[in-house]
Design brief:
- It contains 26 helices and 21 strands.
- The protein is an alpha/beta fold and about 625 residues long.
- The protein folds into five domains: about 180 residues, P-loop containing nucleotide triphosphate hydrolases (Rossmann fold); about 160 residues, Rossmann fold (3-Layer(aba) Sandwich); about 90 residues, Arc Repressor Mutant, subunit A; about 80 residues; about 60 residues, Winged helix-like DNA-binding domain superfamily/Winged helix DNA-binding domain (Arc Repressor Mutant, subunit A), CATH 1.10.10.
- The strands form five sheets. It has a seven-stranded parallel sheet, with helices on both faces. A six-stranded parallel sheet has the order 8-13-12-9-11-10, with helices on both faces. A three-stranded antiparallel sheet has the order 14-19-15.
- Strand 20 and strand 21 form a beta hairpin.
- Helix 14 packs across helix 16 and helix 24 crosses helix 26.
- The longest helix is centred in the C-terminal third of the chain and has 23 residues.
- The chain starts with a helix and ends with a strand.
């Protein structure tokens, strides 16, 4: 469908491209942008994807640059000058960066040939990855009203598609929707008491790469260590590690030095790696949108691959508790909004655009608030335009000791204050020598009797002397009030949207649970039906179409035969030993062994062991 989409853009039409993960969306705006005079503005929330695409363009001799966070005003000025005068073809930027007046002023002067909005579902209130800053992308339509817009996404329900077109103010757009069916991808759902054992069985003979998704940062570290102890090369990835460490881990995984990436959902958005044979979810995802996108990272080379979701009964209870039972009602929002204004001493009718440092834990403690409910309420207030939270919201300070416990105790002897604070941290937090550990600065204050300033000073001194490595969040976030304080009136205006958002979140979780429990309808058909595709036929390879003990398809038999032959290279093995090293049902393994013997690919010795002919 790429050619039709490109032709639509070349005709100057607003265009929507719905293509599955790995469907080649970037080509749909890169080709027409190269064919026309001027520069293409690309809005993307994915810093990793921006970097990947720019590197690919540069390797082909195409001039492209990006505006991300962490650059100085002078550097920003220079980059914008280059974009304006340097014959660049692509300018990538985040929706947050677009809000800057200097960026908008430069774009006004540019000869823009196309506006590309990647992950366009982020503009919809009902999209899974809603980003408030996406609402302001329409400033580009005001600056360049005649320039066509192309919106690209891989996960849009019919409702999200309609909302996206409306929010982007697209004029009679041409909508291209490719089938979301992935014929080479086997969706499998299994109820498992020992999920790690099943994951081990799947991964131990994996010849390609794999991704294992877990819900929290600590889990990524623990699972990767367990896999390594089982002989499966693995590393971990989450939002709290440094950019340098992320790049190193990604490179090790891509080039095959590490086979398995254990990650939170911070990993994978925009990551293009063809040779992923398994994507395994060890916990239930919060929505089919996120699951479909994460599972879709398997088999992007077109070869057979598996997306496996492992769950138990506790997982089903937990996902409801975390994402449904803790949803804030309109009255919860009123209470927390009123409390927030009191906390910052905002007078009635004032406070608009005032910015404040915000300590979330302190706020919840002072007013005895439920932390999960409050966290969700603040995110809803941010999403609905009442407040704005900085991107640091929800991050915690982390510390890891870099030297042995004996050397640490010797180091503490030099300074009584360091000793008091350091030993208190060691008593409270186990595992702080093995991995970066989230610490509560307020708790350390109460346990040591030292001021917050003293504790921060001591931690920074230990960091300078390479005793610890840390990431310090002195406050949880910066919070900006976007409207004047009117207490209940403020929330009444958005009450309908609050109720709709809660219904939507409950429906998303229920859709995931229905997908897990429905063992009568093909898993692929279930997934694509959710995204409005009603004509898909059975895939023939999922856990419904092909239960573990059923007959194998020709493609699966070929995969199994290759695995058996690989096991027998240099080893004589019995059928039991072969079965223990493979994830297929024993009846199917025996069947393929017989076929390999009939084809004279293998033989059997007097000890009933099979060997390569």
């Amino acid at each position: 469908m790429q050619e039709e989409i490109i032709a639509s853009v070349m005709d100057g039409k607003d265009t929507v491209a719905l293509l599955p993960t790995g469907g080649g969306k970037s080509l749909c705006f890169q080709v027409p942008a190269l064919a026309m005079d001027g520069i293409c503005i690309v809005i993307s929330p994915l810093v990793a994807l921006m970097g990947d695409q720019i590197n690919t363009l540069k390797q082909r001799g195409i001039k492209a640059l990006k505006l991300t966070g962490g650059i100085s005003f002078d550097e920003l000025n220079t980059l914008l000058d280059n974009a304006l005068y340097g014959n660049y073809k692509f300018l990538y930027l985040s929706p947050e960066r677009l809000q800057q007046e200097i960026v908008q002023n430069y774009i006004k002067q540019m000869n823009v040939n196309l506006i590309a909005v990647d992950e366009a579902h982020c503009i919809s209130q009902w999209g899974n990855d809603f980003r408030p800053a996406y609402k302001n992308i329409t400033v580009l339509r005001e600056i360049h009203p005649l320039v066509p817009i192309i919106a690209l996404t891989a996960t849009a329900t019919p409702e999200v598609l309609e909302d996206t077109i409306s929010e982007l103010r697209m004029e009679l757009p041409a909508v291209f929707k490719n089938s979301f069916v992935r014929g080479n991808l086997s969706y499998q759902v299994f109820k498992e008491d020992d999920k790690l054992y099943r994951a081990e069985q799947l991964l131990k003979n994996n010849s390609g790469s794999a991704i294992v998704y877990v819900r929290n940062r600590k889990g990524t570290i623990e699972i990767s260590e367990q896999l390594n102890s089982l002989g499966i090369s693995a590393t971990f990835y989450h939002g709290g590690i440094s950019a340098k460490e992320k790049a190193e881990k990604l490179e090790s995984w891509r080039n095959g030095r590490i086979s398995t990436m254990v990650a939170t959902n911070a990993f994978g958005m925009g990551i293009d790696h063809p040779n992923v044979r398994f994507v395994i979810h060890l916990q239930i995802p919060e929505s089919l949108e996120s699951y479909f996108q994460e599972a879709g990272r398997a088999g992007r080379d077109g070869e057979y691959a598996s997306a496996v979701l492992l769950y138990n009964e506790y997982d089903k209870m937990y996902v409801k508790q975390q994402f449904v039972e803790s949803l804030p009602t309109t009255s919860d929002l009123k209470k927390i909004y009123r409390t927030l204004n009191n906390y910052f001493q905002i007078p009635y009718g004032e406070g608009e655009f005032t910015k404040h440092n915000f300590a979330f834990a302190d706020f919840c403690k002072i007013y005895s608030l439920n932390t999960l409910l409050t966290y969700n309420a603040l995110n809803n207030l941010d999403r609905l335009g009442i407040i704005q939270l900085s991107q640091e919201f929800g991050r915690k300070s982390t510390v890891q000791f870099l030297i042995s416990s004996e050397k640490v105790l010797s180091y503490f002897e030099k300074d009584i204050t360091i000793s008091v604070i350091g030993k208190t941290i060691l008593r409270i937090y186990g595992g702080i020598f093995e991995m970066p550990t989230a610490i509560n600065l307020d708790l350390i204050v109460s346990k040591t009797g030292q001021s917050i300033e003293t504790i921060i000073s001591v931690l920074k001194k230990m960091e300078r002397e390479h005793v610890v490595e840390m990431m310090l969040q002195i406050t949880d976030a910066t919070l900006t009030f976007l409207v004047p304080r009117e207490d209940d009136k403020t929330i009444n205006v958005i009450s309908r949207e609050v109720e709709a958002l809660n219904r939507k979140k409950s429906a998303q979780v229920n859709s995931v649970l229905h997908y897990i429990d429905n063992n009568k309808t093909c898993k692929s058909v279930q997934l694509v039906s959710y995204f409005g595709e009603t004509t898909a036929s059975k895939c023939g390879i999922c856990s419904v179409c092909k239960p573990p003990n059923s007959n194998l398809s020709n493609k699966e038999m070929q995969v199994l035969a290759k695995q058996i032959l690989a096991l027998l290279e240099g080893n004589d093995l019995s059928s039991r030993e072969i079965s223990e090293n493979l994830t297929f049902a024993e009846t199917n393994i025996l069947k393929v062994i017989r076929l390999l013997m009939d084809a004279e690919k293998i033989k059997i010795n007097p000890k009933n062991q099979y060997y390569l002919k």
